[in-house]
User: Fold this.
Amino acid sequence: MPEPFYFGEPVGIRTRYLLMKSQLLYQLSYINHRNKSIFCGIYCQKHSKCLQYVYCFVVYKVSTVVKINKALIESIKPPIPKEFIRDDSLVGFGVRVSPKGRITFIAEGRIRGQQTKRVTLGTYPAMSVATAKDLARETIQQFQQGIDPKAEQQAKQANEKAMGITVGQVFENYLDIRKLATKTESDYRNTFRLVFSGWSSRPIRSIVRSEVEKLFSEVAKSRGDRTAEKAFTILSALFNFSSTDEVNGVRILTSNPCDVIKVKKLVRRSNPKERFLSKAEIARLYSFYYAEMDWPETKPHGVTKQGIHYFLLLLHTGLRRSEAFKLRWEDVDWQGKIVTVRATKNGTNHRFPMSTGTLHILKQQRLIADKSEWVFPAKSSLGHMTEPKSQLEKLKQATNLDFCLHDLRRTFATHAQAAGMDFALIQQALNHKSGGGVTRQYIISQMEILQKVFQAVSDAILDYYDPGREGDGAPR
Assistant:
């Protein structure tokens, strides 16, 4: 039996390949024949023609051409230099070996007129040698047919990434495009974090109806129906938002799993609030404002002039709470008697005419606000008033009335209707989104038409307190 020989690299390879004498001679001649630039020579310690009991080295750079099989792959042990091993039977098939021994199957090829490209097929042992070789053969055939498999692989990965967009990513995209008001966006984020934090990293395509139904029931049970309804209204909006997106002509979503809530009637609708201030309650409110508020004999109540002006403005205009305390004096047109509310809940500016009652309230508040840019300035800072809750509680205690701020908006609408105003005009006065297209825009632009609504409400409110007054916005 021939004596064993070793061949390897004199530049640091620690793992040497043990070959028999005949194998060594065959290997050397094979490498020299296939790639002369790789083979540099045979070196003998005693004599250049002696091949027994010596170390012989094949000097090459980064590539070895051998038959790639399972035995070869499993014989590779780290640490070794990073190199490529190419198959001698299928040109273009090979493996890339990292210094730590990670083995990656590759396929190489070239389309006419282009540079050689390398495609990663998979790693061992997750992919077998046989599977890798079959895949390499298909990839090489694509190169020969003028198809770039690397470009197709990259496109496929991009598609998979796009199709795998997560619920959290859709949520952020939704907020970026919608441009919600700061407070509304904060509320959305808090609700999303509270209810859907466990779904944030999941692909939105993976959410199914049964999961939506189950989570909705859990949230309704633990946090209440209103929280559940609000949270899943947001989630439904995300699905509708994402359903418009396509990847190479394929829609990311084709249905909204939140539809199960409506179909199965999981939302238990509560009766809408119908609370509004009656004529007697409005008279009581004005009695406190004009007759009792500043009496020396009146018990200390803590209601400020600014506080009562704020509540009366809501009553005369039907404004939302935040719309009123964000008013600036620059948005009050004294000459044209028009007020402009900017960045409303609808995302549009709301312009409305001043009634005599509104004009009187704003003139009185102007004296209190002094030089502030805000109609209702904050007490201890440069901004505007933000939370009227304390003043509301004090007013309710002083007048023995029980109402919330939105009740004042309903009061405006109710008494406008009682005064015979058209329902569509009342909607315009409240800046409700109700469609209407060009017709709606036309109505809004006619301040004299809306003036009738605001003045009718103002006259009715003041008549409840002082039926015999004159129309100057204040009782006798």
